[in-house]
UniProtKB/TrEMBL annotation:
<dbReference type="InterPro" id="IPR001810">
    <property type="entry name" value="F-box_dom"/>
</dbReference>
<dbReference type="GO" id="GO:0019005">
    <property type="term" value="C:SCF ubiquitin ligase complex"/>
</dbReference>
<feature type="domain" description="F-box">
    <location>
        <begin position="16"/>
        <end position="56"/>
    </location>
</feature>
<protein>
    <recommendedName>
        <fullName>F-box domain-containing protein</fullName>
    </recommendedName>
</protein>
<dbReference type="InterPro" id="IPR036047">
    <property type="entry name" value="F-box-like_dom_sf"/>
</dbReference>
<dbReference type="GO" id="GO:0000209">
    <property type="term" value="P:protein polyubiquitination"/>
</dbReference>
<dbReference type="Pfam" id="PF12937">
    <property type="entry name" value="F-box-like"/>
</dbReference>
<dbReference type="GO" id="GO:0031146">
    <property type="term" value="P:SCF-dependent proteasomal ubiquitin-dependent protein catabolic process"/>
</dbReference>
<dbReference type="InterPro" id="IPR039588">
    <property type="entry name" value="FBXO4"/>
</dbReference>
């Protein structure tokens, strides 16, 4: 007859010494810290520790950490983190709303696309985690996801492999966009040649690979050499 294993005492995790509990919380990401803090009063105390939120703040917004260190003596790191998170949410939502208001039958003209990229660059201290939180969401269209991808690679200089991992973690890597190009016919001995039309459908994940480099280069140029339009593909709508 097999013996059943002895039951684990119910209060064991709650009875951890505070320094060990804080050490555990200090190794977690934001969402996990918040979830763990809701398990019990002792875990809430550990997860509210200043050192836990200082690490999270410094990892997410390293450029703002020096100024925040002074304010932390009064407000505490958790309050600073939450305030900065809300500020980022408002600033990035303004860009998202601009893109939404600029769409025409699911398409976005080049000038509006590039303005959204430029507006993101004007947000102080924005980092890759902010892009993941607010632009890689499945609640947004593939065009918003694309803008976050493009900004991360071209402005934040995040390695494409890391962007690919983030897209997969946010479950948007397979989404597709369609880049429609209208190449204006050039003049040749007093005659204007015919315009050239080209359409490329590509997934967000493919844009982080070698085959996507040319498409991103076209997006960077905008209407200087081509007039282009972005359109969410039917495949994306079906996901």
């Amino acid at each position: 007859m097999e013996l059943s294993p002895a039951p684990v005492p119910a209060g064991r995790w709650a009875d951890l010494p505070e320094d060990i509990a804080v050490a555990v919380a200090s190794r977690l990401q934001e969402a996990d810290v918040c979830a763990l803090g809701g398990c019990s009063r002792s875990w809430r105390t550990a997860c509210d520790a200043d050192c836990v939120w200082e690490r999270l703040f410094r990892c997410r917004w390293p450029a703002a950490a020096a100024e925040a260190a002074v304010a932390s003596r009064v407000q505490g790191w958790k309050a600073l983190y939450m305030n900065q998170h809300r500020r980022m949410a408002v600033a990035i939502s303004d860009v998202v709303e601009f893109v939404g208001s600029s769409l025409n039958n699911g398409s976005l003209e080049s000038e509006y696309y590039l303005k959204a990229i430029a507006d993101l660059a004007l947000i102080a201290d924005i980092g890759f985690l902010d892009v993941q939180f607010f632009l890689f969401s499945r609640n947004h269209s593939a065009i918003i996801n694309l803008i976050g991808l493009h900004y991360s690679i071209s402005s934040l200089h995040v390695p494409p492999t890391e962007v690919s991992k983030a897209l997969q973690a946010c479950q948007v890597a397979g989404r597709k966009v369609c880049v429609n190009l209208l190449k204006l016919g050039r003049w040749f001995y007093g005659f204007r040649l015919r315009d050239e039309h080209e359409s490329r459908k590509i997934s967000l994940n493919e844009l982080t690979m070698s085959e996507g480099a040319e498409v991103l280069a076209i997006l960077n140029r905008g209407a200087v050499h081509e007039v282009f339009r972005l359109r969410v593909s039917l495949a994306d709508m079906d996901e």
